[in-house]
Amino acid sequence: MNDLTLRKAKIIIRKALEKGKELGFKPLSVAVLDAGGHLIAFERSDGASAGRFDIARGKAYGCIMVGVGGTAIQARGEAQAVFVDAMNGLCDGRFVPVKGGVLLRDAKGALLGAVGVTGDT
Fold first, then answer.
1. Between the CA atoms of 99, 101, 106 and 111, what dihedral angle is there, to the nearest 10 degrees?
2. For the segment 3-35, what is each residue's pLDDT rounded down to a tens digit?
3. Which pTM was predicted?
Protein backbone atom coordinates (compact mmCIF):
# COMPACT_ATOMS: atom_id res chain seq x y z
CA MET A 1 0.00 0.00 0.00
CA ASN A 2 1.29 3.46 -0.90
CA ASP A 3 -0.46 5.48 1.79
CA LEU A 4 1.25 8.53 3.13
CA THR A 5 1.91 7.43 6.71
CA LEU A 6 3.03 9.44 9.70
CA ARG A 7 6.43 7.73 9.47
CA LYS A 8 6.83 8.77 5.82
CA ALA A 9 5.62 12.31 6.57
CA LYS A 10 8.24 12.65 9.32
CA ILE A 11 10.95 11.47 6.91
CA ILE A 12 9.85 14.07 4.34
CA ILE A 13 9.98 16.78 6.99
CA ARG A 14 13.37 15.70 8.30
CA LYS A 15 14.87 15.63 4.79
CA ALA A 16 13.41 19.05 3.91
CA LEU A 17 14.80 20.61 7.09
CA GLU A 18 18.19 18.96 6.56
CA LYS A 19 18.33 20.28 2.98
CA GLY A 20 17.43 23.75 4.18
CA LYS A 21 20.28 23.70 6.70
CA GLU A 22 22.68 22.34 4.08
CA LEU A 23 21.80 25.20 1.73
CA GLY A 24 22.05 27.82 4.48
CA PHE A 25 18.36 28.74 4.42
CA LYS A 26 16.63 30.70 7.15
CA PRO A 27 14.67 28.49 9.61
CA LEU A 28 12.05 26.49 7.71
CA SER A 29 8.67 25.07 8.59
CA VAL A 30 7.19 22.05 6.79
CA ALA A 31 3.64 20.69 6.66
CA VAL A 32 2.61 17.35 5.14
CA LEU A 33 -1.05 16.81 4.25
CA ASP A 34 -2.87 13.71 3.02
CA ALA A 35 -4.80 13.63 -0.28
CA GLY A 36 -7.89 15.02 1.45
CA GLY A 37 -6.02 18.07 2.72
CA HIS A 38 -5.76 16.85 6.32
CA LEU A 39 -2.61 17.49 8.31
CA ILE A 40 -0.41 14.45 8.92
CA ALA A 41 2.63 16.20 10.39
CA PHE A 42 4.20 19.62 10.87
CA GLU A 43 7.54 20.79 12.16
CA ARG A 44 8.88 24.27 12.72
CA SER A 45 12.62 24.90 12.96
CA ASP A 46 13.98 26.76 15.97
CA GLY A 47 13.89 30.44 15.15
CA ALA A 48 11.16 30.19 12.50
CA SER A 49 8.92 33.23 12.52
CA ALA A 50 5.31 33.29 13.65
CA GLY A 51 2.55 32.25 11.27
CA ARG A 52 4.61 29.58 9.57
CA PHE A 53 2.19 26.75 10.34
CA ASP A 54 -0.67 28.41 8.48
CA ILE A 55 1.57 29.38 5.55
CA ALA A 56 3.10 25.90 5.13
CA ARG A 57 -0.28 24.21 5.47
CA GLY A 58 -1.86 26.70 3.05
CA LYS A 59 0.78 26.07 0.40
CA ALA A 60 0.24 22.30 0.58
CA TYR A 61 -3.54 22.68 0.77
CA GLY A 62 -3.61 24.87 -2.34
CA CYS A 63 -1.71 22.23 -4.29
CA ILE A 64 -4.22 19.56 -3.33
CA MET A 65 -7.25 21.70 -4.08
CA VAL A 66 -6.03 22.78 -7.53
CA GLY A 67 -4.04 19.64 -8.41
CA VAL A 68 -0.78 21.37 -9.33
CA GLY A 69 2.37 22.57 -7.57
CA GLY A 70 2.88 25.95 -5.96
CA THR A 71 4.90 27.36 -8.85
CA ALA A 72 1.99 26.73 -11.24
CA ILE A 73 -0.49 28.14 -8.73
CA GLN A 74 1.55 31.32 -8.33
CA ALA A 75 1.81 31.74 -12.11
CA ARG A 76 -1.94 31.27 -12.46
CA GLY A 77 -2.55 33.77 -9.69
CA GLU A 78 -0.39 36.34 -11.44
CA ALA A 79 -2.31 35.77 -14.67
CA GLN A 80 -5.79 35.31 -13.16
CA ALA A 81 -6.09 36.97 -9.76
CA VAL A 82 -9.86 36.43 -9.77
CA PHE A 83 -9.33 32.64 -9.90
CA VAL A 84 -7.06 32.71 -6.84
CA ASP A 85 -9.48 34.95 -4.96
CA ALA A 86 -12.34 32.58 -5.78
CA MET A 87 -10.34 29.52 -4.68
CA ASN A 88 -9.38 31.19 -1.43
CA GLY A 89 -13.04 31.96 -0.79
CA LEU A 90 -14.05 28.38 -1.52
CA CYS A 91 -11.27 27.09 0.74
CA ASP A 92 -12.20 29.33 3.70
CA GLY A 93 -8.97 31.32 3.40
CA ARG A 94 -6.69 28.27 3.69
CA PHE A 95 -5.32 28.60 0.16
CA VAL A 96 -1.82 30.17 -0.09
CA PRO A 97 -1.10 30.68 -3.82
CA VAL A 98 2.69 30.94 -3.88
CA LYS A 99 5.72 28.77 -4.52
CA GLY A 100 6.66 26.30 -1.80
CA GLY A 101 4.07 23.56 -2.22
CA VAL A 102 4.43 20.26 -4.06
CA LEU A 103 2.12 17.35 -4.70
CA LEU A 104 3.11 13.87 -3.58
CA ARG A 105 2.20 10.99 -5.91
CA ASP A 106 2.87 7.28 -5.89
CA ALA A 107 4.65 5.42 -8.69
CA LYS A 108 1.37 5.09 -10.62
CA GLY A 109 0.59 8.80 -10.33
CA ALA A 110 -2.11 8.54 -7.67
CA LEU A 111 -2.27 11.55 -5.37
CA LEU A 112 -0.95 10.80 -1.87
CA GLY A 113 -0.89 14.32 -0.49
CA ALA A 114 1.22 17.47 -0.54
CA VAL A 115 4.06 19.22 1.23
CA GLY A 116 4.26 22.91 2.03
CA VAL A 117 7.53 24.59 2.99
CA THR A 118 7.99 28.15 4.20
CA GLY A 119 10.68 30.33 5.74
CA ASP A 120 12.99 31.22 2.86
CA THR A 121 12.78 31.83 -0.88
1. -110
2. 899 999 999 999 999 999 999 999 999 999 999
3. 0.93
